[in-house]
Amino acid sequence: MGVLLTAITILLVSPLKHLEAVELKEVKLGETVALMCNLSVYFEIHWLKISEGRLMALMVTSLKHTGELSVVWNYNETHFEGFMEMQTTGLRILHVSTSDLATYYCATSYQKRLDFDKGVQLYTNQQDKQKTSDHVQDLSGREKKGENKTDESGGLNGPSLHYQVFAAVLCFGLLVMLLAVSVVHIKTKNIYNTEI
After folding, report:
1. What is the signed CA dihedral for 59, 142, 156, 128, rounded to 10 degrees?
2. What's the average model confidence in pLDDT over 17-42?
3. Would you say residue 33 has pLDDT above 90?
4. Cβ–Cβ under 8 Å, residues 101 and 30
5. Pairing of strands 103-110, 119-123
6. From start to end of 65-142, where are the E strands?
7. Fewer CB near the terminus (10 Å): N or C of the chain?
8. Is pLDDT of 195 > 80?
C-alpha cells in the first residue's frame, strides 16, 4: 500500500515539477504580504507553496451564493488569510518569516481540471533577488541556471501545463481503476475459494 501511495504522489506532483516563479516580489520580514489570483472567482481557488523541493497546500477558498468569499480549508488560520478585492481573490501572509520565502501559485478546480495562475516568488532583499533569478529551483529541489522562458500561452517551454495536469489526473484515474479491479478480483477469489 505504501508503494502505491508513493506512486500516486509522484504521478500527481510530477506535472508541477516544472512550474516556476514568473514574478519576483520583495517582502520585508515581519510584515504582511498580499498575493492576488487572476483566475475566476466562481470556482474553488487552491493556494500552493513550493519551497525547498516540497509542495504544500495552504488554503482552499470558494465563493458563497451571496458573493462573499468562503475559506473552505486553511492550513494555518493564524498565518494565512483569504480575501477578496475588486472581484479578485487573494492570499494574505501575516508576519512574513524566512520560511515564507518560497514560490506561491493559485489554481482553480473545475470539473476535475486544475488551471494555474503565474507563480510569485517572495524574497527579502536585492542580494536574494539576484540569487533567485540566477538559480531557479524546480520542485525536486535541484537548481537550474538560466532564465525562465515562457511561450505565448504563458506556459513554460515544452508541453503545456494543462496537458501535464491532464496527464497526471488521467494517470491517477488509471491507478484508481487498477486498484479497484484488483480489490474486486481478490474479494471474488476469496468468495469463490470459501464456497469450494
Report:
1. 70
2. 84
3. yes
4. no
5. antiparallel
6. 69-74, 80-85, 88-93, 103-110, 113-116, 119-123, 135-137
7. C
8. no
Residue with grid cell 529541489, as numbered in its chain: 141
Looking at residue 58, what is its pLDDT? 93
pLDDT at 31: 95
CA–CA distance, 115 with 190 (Å, rounded to integer): 43
24: left (phi over 0), alpha (psi -120 to 50) or beta: beta
C-alpha cell at 182: 484488483
* 36 touches 92 (CB < 8 A): no
State the cell numbers at 140.
525536486
Look up the pTM and report it. 0.57
29 contacts 87 by C-beta, under 8 angstroms: no
